[in-house]
Amino acid sequence: MKTVHINTNTISQIFNSLQTELGGKLNVSHQEFNLVLDNTLVEGNISGISLDNNISFMKYDVTFKEDIILKNQTTATNPINFMYCSKGQLSYGFSESGTKKVLKQFQTGIFSSDPNKDAIMFFKKDNSIKFSNIIVDALEDKNAESIDLLRNQLVKTFMPKNGEETFAYVGSFNLKIGEKIQQLDAISQKGIVRNLLINGTVHVILAMEIQQHKEDLKNLKNNFGSLTKSEMEDVKEISTFIQNYPEIQYSLKYLSKKSGLSPSKLQEGFKLLHNRTVTDFIRNTRVEAAENLIKTTDLNISEIVYTVGLTSRSYFSKIFKEKYDCSPKYYQDNQHTLAVTA
User: Is 162 helix (H, G, I), strand (E, B) or coil?
Assistant: First the structure.
């Protein structure tokens, strides 16, 4: 078993340490870091960027070829780590021999400790893993001109208290965070636009992980939330099917049979994943599909209504206006006007 030592929380120094310990080729562009790894110890890549409000974002997509311990020893700082596992699993602890928390696929983990404790990640040999880590510096910046309300709230909620030295939380399964990370991966813009999009998306992911913690505490009190990882995957799969084929006349019975989930499980899953009922999700999917057809095709409104699986033009106009605050005809006419004047 190999131990990789990191003695800093500064993003540039973290990547220099990782390259020294793991090898690979480090590329740096516009404050973004990407370490490409392909050797006898590890293959894959580790990327990261430093953002506003003393926040850094790192993403690991690696397969270690032997058991690895990644130990962060920083006696001067004590960041809060907001982690999400997209594939595989890893363990997190505060000492090599102490209790470990296992972070499985689709789970959020939030970890922090006093500076005298180590932050340790444990990786198994040949276990392909993808996970992200939002690192929030918990120390107050004495040079800051204004109070950082975000950091103060995070410290209040997620730093150890009542005489404890560590804070460790592993959440329930959450596919929405995984989808948001995929959106982050899909950002193709360059320069300041790219930086703004990454910054905004990472803050949204951070907000979602905080909300996940809040909901888990509430559900624990209410004994709510019974879906397994496999059932959540089934919900995601049936959601994608609806988005690909909005024209089908769906019923809860049909979707229940196709997904293998009971109607109540299906409703619970859609509420967790989309914050909508099944019916609301289908309706919203059709409206969004229709909006895209208005922008990208020459179909008239009646043809679009039929194409997305609706039968009433007046009903479609009603729900379109509720979502976009204008009629579909007005939206279509102004799309054509813009095309002529562009």
Answer: coil
Alpha helices for the chain (secondary structure H) = 11-22, 149-158, 175-185, 191-222, 229-244, 252-259, 263-274, 278-296, 301-307, 313-324, 328-341
Q: Are strands 55-64 and 129-136 parallel, antiparallel or unpaired?
A: antiparallel
The Cα–Cα gap between 114 and 135 comes to 15
Give the residue from 278, 288, 287, 272 showing the smallest Cα distance to 258: 278
pLDDT > 50? residue 342: no
What pLDDT, on a 0 to 100 scale, did the predictor assign at position 146?
45
- Kindly list the structural domains of the chain, giving each domain's residue range(s) and its CATH number in brackets, ordered by start: 2-172 (2.60.120.10), 229-341 (1.10.10.60)
pLDDT digits (tens, 9 = 90+) for 184-238: 989 999 888 998 999 999 999 999 999 888 888 877 665 555 678 788 889 999 9
| CA quadruple 277, 294, 182, 236: dihedral sign | positive
Q: Are 85 and 133 in contact (CB under 8 A)?
A: no
- Count other C-beta atoms under 10 Å from residue 267's C-beta: 18
**pTM, rounded to two decimals:** 0.74
β-sheet bridge partners, residue 130: 61, 87
Structure tokens at 325: 């605050």
pLDDT at 117: 87
CB neighbour burial string for 14-26, b if at least 16 within 10 angstroms, e if fewer: bbbbbbebbbbeb
What is the residue-averaged pLDDT of the chain? 88
Structure tokens at 46: 């580790």
**Cα diameter, the chain:** 69
Q: How far apart are CA 165 and CA 172, in angstroms?
A: 24
pLDDT number for residue 154? 86
